[in-house]
Amino acid sequence: MAHEHEHEHEHDTVDQPQTSQALQSGGEKLDAAGKSLSDALRISFAILKVIMIILVIAFLASGFKTVGPDEQALVLRFGKIKGVGEEMILGPGWHWIFPYPIDELVKIPVGQKISLAVNTFWYKETRDDILGQGVRPRRPPPEKLDPLQEGYCLTGSRRRPVSAAVGAIASGAQRPGQGEGRDYNIVHTKWQIDYQITGVEQFFRNVHVGDVRPGQVYVDVITQSVTPLLKSVVEDAIVDAIVQYSIDEAILSADTIRRHVMQLVQERLDAIESGMRVTSVQLVEARWPKQVDEAFNAYVQASQQSSQALSEARTYADKTLTNAAGRVAEQLYQTIQDENADEEQREALWALAAGEVQDQLAQAQTYRTKVVEAAKANADYMTSILPEYRKRPELVLRQIYLDAIQEVLTNADEKFVLDKSDEAREHEFRILVNRDPALKPKGTQ
């Protein structure tokens, strides 16, 4: 028993170091695992911090926006325009804003001109009509104009404002169908409108623009959104303006019609504070109804011939006046006709005259000088022979007579000398006028 008890104590003594060693080994293993876990967590948190910093930097960097050279922009903070006055509008260049959803940058193309074609008032054209012009024979037009399919405008017979005509009817001074403005004509027109956005804030507040979807260009979205509004305004302006002009002015595309329509369109856009400005309005084409094509062709041809005749007459008149007196011909004529005209002004115009008038003046001046010099020479001659005339007047008169006869005979082309005959009571003369065709008057070549 004692031996067994000693043996058991020996076993306990042996097991205690082994257990301590095992515990120590397990603790070391636990410390290594915890350390590894701690290191892993520390590295993970470091990486997470780096990622968060990168995300924050990327988030803030996404706030840098660029505005193009032909654009202006507004900043919307939670859907409300940021800034007051000029501060709310951003010009071209780089700008930083808080990223979405805090801020949003709305860029509007203020420097880009947008075109809009208005063909509402043009007659209906089929695909064959458009593609077959000049190739296929034209189909005969319908007998009647269908207002549900054919677009058209009404023109007045005279340049009378519509407001005046309406006022006259309302007051009872004129009933519908009486007096001026009762004759209306139909004309088909095509128009081209160019506009651009000038007021960024007004345009954003008062003009609806649809949402821009991914892949869409904001300019295209603006154009699609604005087209119905602008087209309606332009159509109303065209109807109101063209009725105040004659069909002749409409067909000739008078510039006053274009300017009138442009003024009305701009006034209506300003009235709704659209922030848009019309830069150009063009009446592309104007044509009478196809149903009266033959009559209008004859009318146009007659008008062209009349215009050509008037142009030729004006050209001839201008040429004649220029040849007659130069650039001052018309003014000189008016001055001559005016009895109260200033004599100095008249003489100045005579001095500026050119052409045939100047030649006539030169010839007249030459003739005047010749006559005056001849008169002076005769006066001097008479003065010189006056003493001799007082002594022998008959002899001097005879000499003057002979000198005159000599001058006359010298300038005569043919001379006939007839002697007196006592036997013949009467003389008969038979002279062939210009009997020699080669004979020319003296002094001609």
Instruction: State the helical fraction.
Output: 40-55%
Q: Give the percentage of residues in beta strands.
A: 5-15%
Mean pLDDT comes to: 76
Low confidence ranges: 1-5, 159-181
Termini separation comes to: 189 Å
Task: Write structural notes for this entry.
It is a single chain. The chain is an alpha+beta fold. Among the domains are: 64-108, no CATH class; 114-133 and 144-288, 2-Layer Sandwich (Tetrahydropterin Synthase, Chain A). 53% of the residues lie in helices and 13% in strands. The strands form three sheets. Strands 2, 3, 4 and 6 form a four-stranded antiparallel beta sheet that branches. Strands 7, 8, 9 and 10 form a four-stranded antiparallel beta sheet that branches. Strands 1-5 form a two-stranded antiparallel ribbon. Helix 5 crosses helix 7 and helix 11 (356-391) packs antiparallel against helix 12 (393-411). The longest helix is centred in the first third of the chain and has 60 residues, at 2-61. The protein is elongated and about 185 Å long.
